[in-house]
Write a structure and sequence with these properties.
The protein is of the alpha/beta class and about 260 residues long. It has one domain: Ribokinase (UDP-N-acetylmuramoyl-L-alanine:D-glutamate ligase, 3-Layer(aba) Sandwich). The longest helix has 17 residues. It is built from eight helices and nine strands. Strands 3-2-1-4-5-6-7-8-9 form a nine-stranded mixed beta sheet, with helices on both faces.
């Protein structure tokens, strides 16, 4: 059984973070493991409290998993601060963790800051170069590339700049763009591929970035090449959005187990 590790924050509402990642791993047939970087008190409306985990404890979780069970792929989500980023990058190098998917989480759906501003430089210099695939949305791509990203040409330039930082493959996600279709841009350092899907009109979009990155990591662990892994992850995410339940008063969660859902009785 393929083994996939999520290095991310915990979402008490169950819609994002390690909860979304582990649900995705289970749905896609890989054994999921976790290294928790922060504990958040949140629901569909807001993030009310954040408790960051000590960097040495984050590293110890990664060490424990790698030294016994092993890792075929991993993804990072909320990393919170610079010391945690340093600890995670060092552990990735120490254990030569393959197929690392970096979701450069900076802000929650409700607008809460999930990465300290002084940590962005370290994200760029020590973690991005380790990424097999990095999956920024348009605002995150703007920060990473140092340019405004509002259209296709700017997205292409941002992908080039992020690739130049060391990431082997870049996916600039287009969900924040105002268009009837969601167009993600895949770049491997040579060619661009536009990945289109019809926009799902729903308020249940909590954890979309986490789910997409986790699904990409799961498909990489299964042996799919990067572009195919991203395409399959996008298909999984779209289906989970279409099947999403209406839970909570704000931005609700997805249905990660849509393919297995059966009526009671």
């Amino acid at each position: 059984m393929k083994r996939v590790l999520t290095i991310a924050g915990s979402d008490s509402g169950g819609g994002a973070g390690i909860q979304a990642d582990l649900k995705t791993f289970g749905a896609l047939g890989v054994f999921g493991m976790s290294a928790i970087t922060a504990v958040t008190a949140q629901n569909t409306v807001a993030v009310t409290r954040i408790q960051e985990i000590a960097p040495d404890i984050v590293a110890a979780q990664i060490d424990a998993v790698c030294e016994d069970i092993g890792v075929d792929a991993a993804k990072t989500g909320m990393l919170a601060n610079a010391p945690i980023i340093e600890a995670v990058a060092a552990a990735v190098r120490r254990h030569r963790i393959p197929n690392l998917v970096v979701d450069p989480v900076m802000v929650s759906k409700s607008g809460a800051a999930l990465l300290q501003k002084d940590a962005v430089r370290l994200l760029l210099t020590v973690l991005v170069p380790l990424a097999h695939i990095i999956t920024p949305n348009l605002p995150e791509a703007s920060v990473l590339a140092g340019i405004a990203v509002t259209n296709e040409e700017e997205a292409r330039e941002a992908a080039r700049r992020i690739h130049a930082l060391g990431a082997r493959h870049v996916v600039v996600k287009g969900g924040h763009a105002a268009s009837p279709n969601v167009v993600d841009l895949f770049y491997d350092g040579r060619d661009f591929q536009e990945l289109k899907a019809e926009r799902v009109v729903t308020t249940a979009t909590h954890g979309t970035g986490c789910t997409f990155a986790a699904a990409t990591a799961a498909y990489l662990a299964h042996g799919l090449p990067p572009l195919e892994a991203v395409i399959r992850a996008k298909e999984f995410l779209t289906a989970a959005l279409k099947a999403a339940p209406i839970l909570g008063r704000g931005t609700g969660p997805l249905d990660h187990f849509h393919a297995f859902r059966r009526p009671a009785g």
